[in-house]
Every structure is written in structure tokens, then in C-alpha cells.
């Protein structure tokens, strides 16, 4: 009989020992466990989640990890291995939106959101480590939130299902952090699976895993972090969301999910020019997600390049959330051999992805670095990602 505790990974990945040792130095004693949650790349389906549409992200092999121990009082002590905030102390009875700063917004937001659901949250000591690049559009904040909610779900015995954790972390983001984001990022982080993308219907949260393995197709997925930092709590994201809501209202539908590509000609006569372009992005993007899923299931990743390109063009021209650095990353990748490329995530900075033949990986990397240098942009960080497992306990 296997008596190993459920969710306990074996063997423990490198690094959990160091994290536990650092925890002991900072807080004394040992953590009760270490939980990790990945960042994500969105393969396709951008700004469709809050329109009750379709998304196709995958969890990446870059994670946030939290070592956690429950305290006997209502104090929260938080420390991260990066940044310079030092140990941050908070009290559970005084958590409220706007009360936290820096990365501590994410764990404290999750604790607050759990309290709002009536869950009795204990004080904790928490040490965070993460290799998800910050502000790169790879969902570093949701990775923290999903690691924390996984830990608290287990430590409190709350018994939340993935769906509940998605909604609680969304509430933390929307109300505590102040970013009006949808449900895509935390869904990818919580539901991710090695070798798969997560096809999510954001209307009912139905999720299906779709094979996305680049290696057998002799492809790699390159991430190009432009180093243009962005925040979804800034106005751009909220203004796009407002345009979508206006479009749905004028068209008399519950959400833009209910508008089909064939309805666009009629919609153009009913909407102002800018709102129409915002709507057209969402409607065509939903359609592209469905076609991408079909192609991945019938032919594999080598068939989806032109859909990635079309998605980028739509974000650049209709939704207007790209920037010069992202466009340069995408155009240069395509010109030097990628079979498809697009910005990924909420936009206004962050990262692009380029689906690239293995044989041309170096050529694409070199071309992008050179193009950025020639344009006087910051040196981009370029690395490969593959679809990885979702949030789980690792020690
Ligand atoms: C950000 C948000 F967090 C997501 O909910 C989603 O809207 C995305 O931007 C755009 O597709 O990552």
C-alpha cells in the first residue's frame, strides 16, 4: 500500500532544501510544506476571457514557490528571496483593499479573498521564491496567488475545487490588487498539465486539455521578454474592458462571446469606429482559438503559425495593445524563421512568443537581439518554454 501523503512530489525538485533552510534562518523552525505554481504563456485567445469567450494558455516551466507555516496567532509574516522589502508584517484583522504594497499584495489579497468566502484563515509565516520574470506578461502575480491559495486550501482544509480557487484569486486581483483581470491566468496556473494547453470556455469554466508538444514537431516555443514593463492596474487594460462592455451593450448581447464573425458586418453600422475594432478583435480572436484547437488536435503545432500571426495583427491594429518593441520582436522572429509569432498576455509591454523550428532557433535569437540593439531598445531576454504541470505541493 502506498502511504505517501497525497500531492507530495518525489523526489523533491532541487531548491526545496535551500528554501527550507532559508525559511529556518529567517523565521526559525521548518515550514509545513512548499507549494509551487507556474506562470503561463497564452498560446492564443487574448482579452477574450472577460468577454466570456475562449482562451488557450499553457502553464510554463517557471514557477513561484512558497514555503509556509501556520502560526498560532493572526500575524502574517512575508518574505521574498527577491526585491528589497524585507520581512513584511501584516495582521489578518486589518486586511483591506489598498492596504498592501509590492508583491505582498498577492498573498495578502488571497488571504483577504478567502476571508470574504467565510474561510477562517490562520496567521502564517511565508517565504516566496520565483523564477517567473516580473512584469513580463507571463503572469508572475497569478503564479504567486495560485501557490498561496494551494497552500492555504490544504493547510486550512477548506477543500476548494480548482473553479473556486480561480474565482477567489480573481477576486483578490480585482478587488484587493485593483487589476480588473479575467480568469485565464489562474486557470492555466491551477489546471496546467505537462505537454498540454488548457482550452478554457470562460463562460462556464469548462476546461479541456489539448496536446501541445513542440518537440516531436521539431519546434521550440521562444519567449521574447521585451523588458517593457506593464501593469494591468494601469488604465489601458480597464479601458479595453470598458470598450468591450460598451460594444456588448450596444449590440444587445450578454457578452461579446455571443457575437459571431458573420455578425460583424451588421455590427459595424451600430458601433463607433474604435468600439467596432475592439469588438472585431474579440470576435475574430474567439474564432481563432477554436480553429487553433481544431488544428492542434488534427495536425499538431506545425499548423497553427498563421493563426498566431493573425492574432498579433488583430491586437496591434484593432485592439491596439501592442507596442513598438513587441511588434519588432514578432516581425523579426517571423522574418528570421519562426512559423508564427504574437505578443502574449494583456499587452502594453511584456513578452512575445515565437513558434520556431529547432534548426532556426539560434538565427531567430540572433536576429531579435540585433534588431533590438539597432533600434536602441533594451536587451531582450529570450528563452524557451514548454507546457508544464499546474500548481501542486512539492515538499
Ligand atoms: C491578463 C489578464 F490577467 C487575463 O485575465 C487576460 O485578460 C489577459 O491579460 C489578456 O488575454 O493576463
UniProtKB/TrEMBL annotation:
Source organism superkingdom: Bacteria
GO biological process: galactose metabolic process
Residue span, GHMP kinase C-terminal domain: 294-371
Keyword ATP-binding: yes
The GHMP kinase N-terminal domain, residue ranges: 106-192
Keyword field: ATP-binding, Carbohydrate metabolism, Cytoplasm, Galactose metabolism, Kinase, Magnesium, Metal-binding, Nucleotide-binding, Transferase
Ranges of residues in domain Galactokinase N-terminal: 22-69
Any one Pfam family match given in the protein's UniProt record, by short name: GalKase_gal_bdg
Cellular component aspect of the GO annotation: cytosol
Similarity annotation: Belongs to the GHMP kinase family. GalK subfamily.
Stated name of the protein: Galactokinase
Species assigned in the record: Pseudarthrobacter phenanthrenivorans (Arthrobacter phenanthrenivorans)
